[in-house]
Amino acid sequence: MLSPAQWRARERAHAARADDLTATYREHRARGERHAIDDFLFTYYSYKPASLRRWHPGIGLALGDGADPDAPGPHPGASASTGADAVGSDAPAVADAQDFGPRSETVASHPDAPADADAQGPLPWHGARWYRTHADGTVSVDAEAFLAARGDLVDRIEALLRAVLDRAPRFACFGLHEWAMVYRDERRHPIPLRLGRRRTDEVVEAHDIACSHYDAYRFFTPAAAPRNELRPTRETQCGLEQPGCLHANMDLYKWAVKLGPLVPGELLLDCFALAREIRWTDMQASPYDVSGFDVPPIAIETPAGKAEYVRLQRDYAERAQALRRRLLDVIGAARAEAAAA
Predict the structure, then answer these.
(1) What's the rounded Cα separation, in Å, for the pair 264 and 60?
(2) What one-character-per-residue DSSP string does 150-187 give?
(3) CB of 221 within 8 A of CB of 183?
(4) Is 274 helix (H, G, I), strand (E, B) or coil?
(5) Angle at Cα 258 formed by Cα 284 and Cα 113, nearest 5°?
(6) Which residues are registered as beta bridge partners of 23?
(7) Any long-range contacts for 75-81 (C-beta under 8 Å, 24+ apart)?
(8) What pTM value is reported for the model?
(9) Taking each helix axis from N to C terminus, what angle separates 23-30 and 4-21, rounded to the nearest 10 degrees?
């Protein structure tokens, strides 16, 4: 069990880390500007900074409370989900797994909170969706209720995570999915092409493309799609996704969100941090000119660029596999707790 002082400290640390990770996006939004790299993490994955900032203890941790659970306080519960629960749904992701927990900021999560904020007010998770209040006043995630409501979704996520975890990584795609998205087509991105239209098309034509990620492949231009060695579909997702794929590893953030309160806040932010790092690499290796973002291109059309891409790809694959194991451990712990309830 975490005492109020302990969990409030974790909550504050989580909010500070989330704020740091989302600072670029929020600063541009405040100025009414778009950020061509970071925006992807909040548009394609349409979970907002407020969802990242909201800390949850995760499965297996009870939160202590010195206050009366029946007293009024910032624990309004939550509304029902309106999002699609399909693994890898073609629709943009929505905040369908953040419909739980406290909606408003707790006293301690506010940056101006007093030092003794951990002693103020009732526990904000009392009465919140997917949480259970115990006889001693402590609160923990209700794994049984969550799995009863979203068991099919959890099954699909678990199957995909395990399939990718057990598969050998491949490191020969060189990020050509981004190039295939602009092949012989009008520019679809506000950033100009680094090599120009003709040279960009020539790079695609000079390489074999073997993209295994459906949600990348489905954005290939009509001229590029037949050039792909694979024909990924939603139905073949579990059979094709592999741990060397940058987009499969970015998607761990999505799966962490969809697993909702089962996932501790620290793991959620670890998944997001990796997704953000990969996103920047994905754009550096793309056909776009990213010099305006103070990062060098990874010129995958050259031997040196290919070597750099594979070096980073291997590092991301290793780190992503560790996160997959942690997410699978969360699911396993939730199943065990629900079975024992």
Answers:
(1) 10
(2) HHHHHHHHHHHHHHHHTSPP----TTHHHHHTTTTS--
(3) yes
(4) helix
(5) 85
(6) none
(7) 75/102, 75/122, 75/123, 75/124, 75/125, 75/126, 75/127, 75/128, 76/102, 76/103, 76/104, 76/127, 76/128, 77/103, 77/127, 77/128, 77/129, 78/103, 78/128, 78/129
(8) 0.85
(9) 60
Q: In angstroms, rounded to a whole number, what is the distance separating the alpha carbons of residues 151 and 258?
A: 12
| Per-residue pLDDT of the chain in tens (341 residues, 90 and over written 9) | 899 999 999 999 999 999 999 999 999 999 999 999 999 999 999 889 998 999 999 999 999 974 434 433 333 333 333 334 455 544 333 334 444 454 434 433 333 333 333 444 456 777 788 999 998 889 999 999 999 999 999 999 999 999 999 999 999 999 999 999 999 987 667 889 999 999 999 999 999 999 999 999 999 999 999 999 999 999 999 999 999 999 999 999 999 999 999 999 999 999 999 999 999 999 999 999 999 999 999 999 999 999 999 999 999 999 999 999 999 999 999 999 999 98
With beta carbons less than 8 A apart as the criterion, state whether 152 and 80 touch: no
Look-up: residue for tokens 């749904």?
A: 89
For 152, 162, 239, 330, 332, the CA distances from 336, given in Å and listed in that order, are: 16, 18, 27, 10, 6
